[in-house]
Write a structure and sequence with these properties.
Number of domains: 1
Number of strands: 4
Order of helices and strands: EHHHEHEHHHEHHHHH
Radius of gyration: 18 Å
Strand content: 5-15%
Strand order of the largest sheet: 2-1-3-4
CATH architecture: 3-Layer(aba) Sandwich
Shape: globular
Structural class: alpha/beta
Distance between the termini: 47 Å
């Protein structure tokens, strides 16, 4: 089995999924930050996402692809060193891996991706706007760069998740699983079972749910915001909101 990845736009709730798969026996590294991200893979994303995104509409120049490959080999050698060659399911949680998905798939044809999605309207008002800050200028169109922050955030959320869903469904087939964070909160045992089965891991889903899953108070925070901005968010992210099963109506409190 190839590497098992957990990816998402920032603030989607991937931390809890990292803890779930670790309890199931997946090695995701030892050099992790407080969000359970693989630190060196995060630094790799810092170095390469914008370069890769700028060339994605064309073809990646061979020298750039070679440099990315050598860098990844070195990073993964350090990431996997604690395993000392012992056979074990492995991977990493670095949400931005979805930005590099075609490249990673080319390197690892048996890759498996858990794609975590959270309501883009919640994401628009998240305090975590790191991906927008680091990659928005590259991935958003010039006209979109002038939009207010919540609208720009919704636009990035929509674009990145739709690209990931398209690629996963068309190219990865049974090695792609998309899970909504809201579904984990609503039915944690069932969702955890799906994740463990997808990665071929073992674990007591009910016990893992009891110990790891807590519904955050921020769930549905978008409803407290003004109707005018929400109308714009719905327009910008309409395709993704519909595709991922989120209601398109504006329901501010």
């Amino acid at each position: 089995m190839g590497p098992c990845l957990i990816g998402a736009t920032g603030g989607s709730g991937t931390r809890v999924f990292a803890r779930i798969v670790r309890r199931g026996g997946l090695f995701i590294g030892t050099n992790l930050n407080v969000s359970e991200d693989a630190v060196e893979l995060g630094a790799y994303s810092d170095r390469w996402i914008n370069t890769f995104a700028e060339s994605r509409a064309r073809s990646l120049p061979p020298p750039v692809g070679a440099d990315m490959g050598r860098d990844l080999d070195a990073v993964l050698a350090r990431h996997l060193a604690p395993l000392a060659g012992a056979p074990r399911p492995w991977g990493w949680k670095e949400p931005r891996c979805i930005y590099l998905l075609p490249f990673l798939h080319e390197r690892f044809p048996a890759i498996r991706l858990l794609h975590v999605v959270r309501d883009g309207r919640d994401m628009a008002y998240s305090p975590n706007q790191n991906q927008l800050t680091m990659h928005g200028q590259t991935l958003l169109r010039p006209a979109e760069a002038a939009w207010p922050q919540p609208v720009r955030s919704a636009a990035l959320w929509s674009r990145v998740n739709l690209l990931t869903a398209d690629y996963g469904e068309r190219r990865l087939a049974g090695r792609y699983l998309r899970v909504r964070f809201e579904d984990l909160c609503a039915d944690p045992v069932l969702t955890i079972r799906r994740v463990l089965e997808f990665f071929e891991l073992q674990g007591n889903a009910a016990e893992i749910a009891r110990q790891e899953v807590t519904v955050p108070p921020s769930l549905g925070r978008w409803r407290a915001h003004d109707a005018e901005t929400l109308t714009t968010l719905h327009w910008v992210a309409a395709e993704a909101l519909a595709r991922f099963g989120y209601a398109a109506e504006c329901e501010p409190e």
